[in-house]
Design a protein that fits this description.
Layout lengths: L2 E7 L4 H16 L2 E7 L3 H4 L11 H17 L25 H15 L3 H13 L10 H8 L4 H7 L2 H17 L7 E4 L2 E4 L4 H10 L8
Parallel strand pairs: 1-2
Antiparallel strand pairs: 1-3, 3-4
Length: about 220
């Protein structure tokens, strides 16, 4: 049986977008499965931790740093238009109604159920974060799904909202049980590896544990 890596991941996280190519390479290089565990953005999961509207250093840094990291990695990136969540950019107030992020998260759960979670996450986040305006309209997401052998209309027809909510709550609980709260977090044998820049550390651990490399 191949080793498994759970990936707790959010469609609203720039760092989740930036890690997806590395996760595909990790899966290609090691005899592992990479299981996508979509979660809600922390602005929805834990509203008490939403940024202070009077102190914008943290959000400014995240935007600056993620754009810098994307440039380093050679990945296109702009802040999504529209934002995957409904949030006032000045007050940071988060709406109770969140149709875009629930749609995306449901698609992520359904893609994983079909065995292509991280593949869909990579393709869809490249559209969302790669500069496609109105990524939620037209055939943008359908084309991303087709790119990895999925049918968007069929996926959306299969989604049961209450089942998705229960699944996502379970992912939140699993992330907490692993000892972390942020995304992206990879969990291997109960050990969390947090952050887009921790793939090399995870690779080292896989080698240390004797996880075999895939035959090229």
């Amino acid at each position: 049986m191949p080793a498994n890596i759970d990936v707790f991941w959010s469609f609203r996280s720039p760092y989740s977008y930036l890690i997806t190519p590395d996760l595909l390479r990790l899966r290609a290089d090691f005899d592992v499965t990479v299981t996508l565990r979509p979660v809600m953005p922390i602005a929805i999961r834990d509203k008490a931790s939403v940024f202070d509207a009077n102190d914008k250093k943290r959000p400014r840094y995240i935007v600056m740093d993620s754009l810098r990291r994307a440039e380093l990695l050679g990945l296109p990136m702009t802040w999504p238009k529209p934002d995957p969540i409904v949030q006032d950019r000045e007050t940071f107030e988060v709406s109770e109604d969140q149709p875009r992020i629930w749609r995306l998260t449901g698609l992520g759960v359904e893609a994983e159920r079909r065995g292509k979670g991280i593949d869909f996450a990579c393709a869809a986040s490249a559209v969302i974060w790669g500069g496609t305006r109105n990524w939620d309209k037209g055939d943008h997401l359908a084309n991303a799904a087709a790119e990895v052998g999925l049918d968007l209309a069929d996926m959306e027809a299969a989604i049961q909202p209450e089942e998705i909510k229960a699944k996502v709550e379970d992912h939140h609980a699993q992330l907490e049980a692993a000892g972390h709260w942020g995304v992206p977090t990879m969990v291997f044998e109960g050990e969390p590896f947090f952050g887009q820049d921790r793939v090399d550390t995870l690779r080292w651990r896989l080698e240390q544990k004797g996880v075999p490399a895939r035959t090229k």
